[in-house]
Amino acid sequence: MTEQTKPNNNMDAIKRLADVVDARRADFLAGKANPDVSYIAKLFSKGDDAILKKIGEEAAETVMAAKDSRFANLAPEMQSKLVGEIADLWFHCFVALSQFNLRPEDVIAELERREGVSGIAEKAARKS
Known about the structure:
Pfam families: PRA-PH. It comes from Polynucleobacter cosmopolitanus. By secondary structure, this protein is mostly helical. The chain is built from six helices and no strands. Helix 1 crosses helix 4. The chain is globular.
């Protein structure tokens, strides 16, 4: 297992990023972060709808990058583009989590809860 794929290192990176986003949000709410200087503060200054719209945009860009990668037979430059788009999507999801006072650990806990459960069964259980 490479250093990059060790679970603790990945979770540490996720927690560090979430901590930065949360800190920027706290600074913004306290009037200490300038939306003209901080991209994260700029997102928070625009509110829920803008944050959620950005997730939609990043999701669409991820889909397009995936389609381009498929058609390019997963050429390294296309793989890199896809990874970059997914990173953008995840980042903006972290901003949304922070906006709603949640953390990536909440998402991980939900994924762990679903572990070993058929996706079809899990989805059907949500409807009842």
